[in-house]
Write a structure and sequence with these properties.
alpha+beta, 5-stranded antiparallel sheet
Length: 307
């Protein structure tokens, strides 16, 4: 089993190690050079800086609604975070429209609180409490969604929470079958580091790899730059566990087969609409002793199609 301690911050709190208003590490700032700026001006005209709410304190969020006591008791008060920064970080994904809204300094809605269950059992208790008390639940992994998957759509419900899976980072490797059970809250680099320590790799490297999580890979049927080699994430999954108000589900851990229907395929790609994915069993491979990355540039789209 891989150690559970997070390299940054406590395990039992939401992560705050990326830009709240954009993408990437707030300690690294990349400036566009003169050539890139000239290309942008040629394509879209003169550039004007987008106004940015410089501080979280200046951001306009709607007031949070109180949570029913049973919901708080399901995970414990220490696992409930209702400060402005955590609510803001869990209110949008990282699509272009999301980034534009973040830079506007105003959002129409946000979760009333962010809850971080300690384990799968706590996730189950929380889902049951929310179902019994008319509280909407939005599962949250890395928050890299570009299709509205973490949007706080509360509908007619009395309150809405963001269920942050940051604490679910377990890694269990089966050396015989070359599979690994991975917690839904593991980020891409964390899972690769844990598997790499045992000479293995998952081999899934989407553009969101740095911040996206195993649960998010499964919920979105993730594909990445290396998908032509190792396969899309759904091709790597052999079993998945889903906790939902209607009941809990763990699919059989079997190789892919022509038999069906497959409940695994119902869960993979469900985008958090059916329940909360708490862990995924995936096929892993021996890590290559050496990796080399190459890139080519074509003169035009037509020339590229001929390569």
């Amino acid at each position: 089993r891989w150690p559970h301690k997070s390299p940054r911050g406590s395990l039992m709190e939401p992560r705050r190690d990326s830009n709240w208003w954009g993408w990437g590490d707030p300690m690294r700032r990349t400036e566009l050079d003169a050539t890139a700026l000239a290309v942008l001006r040629d394509r879209i005209g003169e550039l004007e800086p987008w106004p940015l709410a410089a501080r979280i304190d200046d951001f306009d969020l709607p007031a949070a609604r109180p949570l029913p006591p049973a919901v708080v008791e399901a995970v414990g008060a220490a696992a409930v975070f209702d400060g402005k920064e955590d609510r803001l970080r869990h209110a949008v994904g990282r699509g272009y429209v999301d980034l534009a809204r973040l830079r506007s300094g105003h959002l129409d809605d946000a979760p009333d609180a962010v809850l971080v269950p300690a384990d799968a059992a706590a996730v189950g208790r929380l889902i049951d409490a929310c179902a019994a008390n008319d509280v909407a639940v939005v599962p949250f992994g890395g928050g890299t969604s570009v299709v509205g998957g973490v949007e706080p759509l509360r509908g007619p419900h009395a309150a809405l929470i963001s269920l942050d899976l940051a604490a679910l980072r377990e890694v269990r490797v089966d050396d015989t079958s070359l599979t690994a059970r991975l917690g839904a809250g593991l980020r891409g680099p964390e899972s690769e580091a844990a598997l790499g320590a045992q000479g293995l790799t998952l081999g899934h490297f989407p553009q969101s790899f740095e911040y996206a999580t195993i649960g998010g890979f499964a919920a979105t049927r993730s594909a990445g730059q290396a998908s032509s080699g190792y396969g899309r994430f759904d091709a790597l999954v052999s079993s998945v566990r889903l906790l939902a108000p209607a009941g809990n589900l763990r699919t059989l851990e079997t190789p892919h087969t022509a038999a069906g229907p497959a409940l695994r395929e119902v869960v993979i790609g469900s985008e958090g609409t059916l329940g909360v994915i708490t862990d995924v069993t995936v096929r892993v491979r021996p890590a290559p002793p050496q990796r080399r990355y190459e890139a080519w540039m074509a003169e035009s789209f037509e020339a590229g199609t001929e390569i």
